[in-house]
Amino acid sequence: MAEPANEPLRRTPLYDLHVAHGGKMVPFAGYEMPVQFEGVKAEHLWTREHAGLFDVSHMGPSFLFLKDGLGEADGHAKISALIEQLVPSNIAGLKPGQGRLSVLLNDDGGILDDLIITRMPGEGLDGMLYIVVNGAVKAQDWALMEDKLGGEAMLQRADDRMLVALQGPKAEAALLAHFPEAADLKFMRCAYIQRDGERYMVSRSGYTGEDGFELLLPNNEKGMAIVEALLADERVKPIGLGARDSLRLEAGLCLYGHDMDPTRDPIEADLGWVIQKSRRERADFPGAERILKAFAEGPAEKRVGIQPLERAPAREGTEIHVDGAPVGMVTSGGFGPSVERPIAMGYVRTDLAVPGTKIDLMVRGKARPAEVCDLPFVQPNYKR
Amino acid sequence: MSTYFTEDHEWIAVEGDVGTVGITKYAAEQLGDVVFVEVPEAGASFGKGDDMAVVESVKAASDVYAPIAGEVTEGNGDLADAPETVNEDPEGKGWFCKLKLSDKGELDGLMDADAYKTYCEGL
Q1: What is the rounded CA–CA span in Å between residue A341 and residue A371?
Q2: How many other C-beta atoms lie within 10 A of the C-beta of residue A261?
């Protein structure tokens, strides 16, 4: 993602903590963020085996709620009807505390962002959604929501708070000392916790393929005390953006601005599963015509997993050839520390989007053999 | 044998008119875990500063430049199967290639070990 050159970089509330832990800070999505601490590979492997703490405060947590009728019996139906004007997922069908990955669409059905939309649990909160969007496009996303929905709904940004992800097989044990309420949460379920005058959101989600949690914490000494206590736990280490990227790539998860963008619709991006049947039948989302046509007839190109057959990694932007002719492009690629080999994903012509199809990756002008493969590269450990 | 260093963190150890080239310990540490190295094959010729090799870590690919002009007499084939050698022994077994030097005079523009150490301390 290109960095806006003329805007000063922002810092998250955890900046000083990163520096104290030896974080190497780089510009990312308008913020100074740690790309690594002890090293990408070590941090990646630690997260898969123990637990990693990621600062994702640069992202866009927010709350969208009804101006009129919050807490009423039909509150959730009303707020869902609003947000469903912008996303193709079934939000009305969410249970209290349940979240769902979706995509924000432009009028052509192109993907403006991916986001997680959660129905707030708890008394009196029907009519409020917890929505987390990507950091690099949060201003755009929120402006769109306010523009389209602002008559009936209020958007409250929460990106002045701390947002951290605790990921890995030891995440649950490390978290429960601080949030026993999270013990029974299943994947994509969220708890809203009020304690000592502070509000906390704890959701069982993440972007590494591991079990784990995302925590929205107050930007004060109470929030900081939780982060510091988690980092003091011997099972937990701070993890930078480098390992976050290799973890999500192994898990086959899309990175916005790379594996999807406004030129791609959800079917091409192989995210058709975010469009539930009820929404396909109603065909009432932006770009429904294009998207449903792609769904019925198949898109021209499709996102696939790519397995290089030699040791050379193929990075984003690498051309994909078959018989010397271009047939697609790598959109994310690197080395997977857990699978111990190079891995990638990208778009190819749909007739080639079949696992086992032989392709060439044009790495520095040289054709390197590869195969289209299934995603993910590492099976997820979500707690269903 | 004399060893020279570049501002881009290559080293070249010269014996007679042949130099062995690699990346420095400082560069290897900055890169992190090396997962792939592409070294040039014997017979390839490079001018000073040309892209000569590629070293890839988990997060990115980096070019390695020819410290001076020359023709490759040998690439380090061992790195294909053991790229981690570049982290373990960057200024020894992790060498990239041997160059037959075109113009030994170009060595005058490079740093010696002391000057390179001072240079790194200033980064």
Answers
A1: 13
A2: 14
Condensed to tens digits (0 to 9), the pLDDT of residues A125-172 reads 999 999 999 999 999 999 999 999 999 999 999 999 999 999 999 999
For residue A164, the one-letter residue type is: V
pLDDT surpassing 50 at residue A280: yes
Beta strands in A120-266 (DSSP E): 128-133, 153-157, 162-167, 190-195, 198-203, 212-217, 236-238
Q: How close A347 gets to chain B, by Cα (Å)?
A: 21
Partners of B19 in the beta sheet? B14, B99
pTM: 0.94
- Find, among A319, A296, A346, A271, the residue nearest to A103 by Cα: A271
Give CA separation, A134 vs A76, A104, A283, A309, B24, in Å: 24, 11, 26, 33, 38
Q: DSSP assignment, residue A272?
A: G
Enumerate the β-bridge partners of residue A10: A31
pLDDT of residue A6: 66
Q: Which residues contact B89 (CB under 8 A, 6 or more apart)?
A: none
What tokens appear for A129 in the block?
Answer: 């959604």
Size of interface A-B (CB pairs under 8 A): 47
List strand residue ranges (DSSP E) for chain A, in order. Answer: 24-28, 31-36, 51-55, 60-66, 99-105, 111-119, 128-133, 153-157, 162-167, 190-195, 198-203, 212-217, 236-238, 301-308, 319-322, 325-336, 341-349, 358-363, 366-373
Instruction: Give me the interface pTM, i.e. the ipTM.
Output: 0.87
From the list B36, B59, B80, the residue facing A40 with the nearest CB is: B59
Look at residue B3 and give its three-state secondary structure: strand
Q: What is the 3-state secondary structure (H, E, C) of B37-66?
A: EECCCCCCEECCCCEEEEEEECCCEEEEEC
In 3-state terms, what secondary structure has residue A181?
helix
pLDDT band, very low/low/confident/very high, at A1 (cuts 50, 70, 90)? very low
Please give the backbone phi and psi of residue A110, each rounded to the nearest 5 degrees, phi first. Answer: -80, 155
Does the distance separating the beta carbons of A364 and B58 come in below 8 Å?
no
Residue type present at position A333 = G
Residues ≥6 apart with Cβ < 8 Å to A20: none
Which strands, in side-by-side order, build the sheet including B18-23?
Answer: B2-5, B10-15, B18-23, B97-101, B70-75, B45-46
Give the nearest partner residue to A313 out of B33, B35, B80, using CB atoms. B35
